[in-house]
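Quick one from the shared queue. A colleague (R.T.) flagged Porin as missing a structural entry in our internal table.

Convert sequence to structure tokens.
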Amino acid sequence: MNKKILAVSVMAVLSSGVNAADTEFKFGGYVKTDVMFSDYSNGAPDSGYISRQFYVPGTIYGKAGNGEQVVDFQARESRFNFSSISKVNGHNLKGFIELDFMPHADGNERVSNSYSPRIRHAFVSYDNWLVGQTWTTFQNPAALPENLDFVGAAEGTPFVRQAQVRYTNGGFQFAVENPETTLTPNVDGGRITSGSGMVPDFVARYNFNTESGSKYTFAALVRQLNIENSSYDAQAMAYGASVTGFVPLSGDDLKFSATAGSGLGRYMAINYANGAVIDGNGDLETINSFGGYISYRHWWSDKWRSSFTVSGFKADNDEVLTGGSVNKESYSGYINLLYSPIKPITVGMEYMYAENTKQNGDSGELNRVIFSFKYVL
């Protein structure tokens, strides 16, 4: 539910040139509570660990010695946002900020379940320009499946929010975005995160719709991987391409995504694989990867619906350089049943299965049943 608010306290801070009568203020968001029954093949992670909050590929290997089956109740996905939309001298001006409460470890489940809010989105758009933090232009969030898991099809999609400057003209979008490099040490597994790059990431995207109602996007990414410290000084170019789609099917719909590249790293599968590995000479060798998903949503009636989703990701590691402990491939599947007795409310249950495999063949499995209640504000 969005409400126009003409509050004196808000109007007082409007800058000169913005007429309060021409400005629309909106609050939005939702309240969501999840109950998750999880079975980890290698032992459950400790309470509060990220994979106890939602599925993150590469984090389901658990903790030896812990029990395998756990239940978690949480309302942390609940979020709220505020936006202002104005007409200023014939120009369109919009500000937007959104907060939620994941995936911090600064609270606990012992007494109050208190968790700090975090910024999801914070941006300003002025006509064709957008400046601030939001979804990377390389990602199309509108093509994500309707799953109860926080991300859903996590290994099959680009998934990044970051600061950027974006220009949109019709179906074309061009952006320069925040750079960040994740690397695998030579034959050591693990991860080095480098923020020393001076070259922003470059993204181009084209969105188009067909007369039948189908919607497609094509996106390309070029970036420089960089590390500069007392041990290494190396750079490498990385690139990727992605296609997503939404196809209506006689009342139902099909969503899909396919992404491939060399050095994609953190852009795919919530950084399941790194962008490159450091070889014996200290140079960077980019890691090729591919990921995708397909999701079919069927409407049983105007209030009941189900989504059937499969998702996968694979990294082409050179084991001689990376060693055997790095992530190699991940797959997951989802099936759910959702019911909306009235438009703002959705109640549902979902079963998901996920399997992650490392380069040396070690693997972990997760079976999870989610019960969820969601009220859209």
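The two ends are 4 Å apart (CA to CA).
Helices lie at 8-11, 319-322.
Added to the table.
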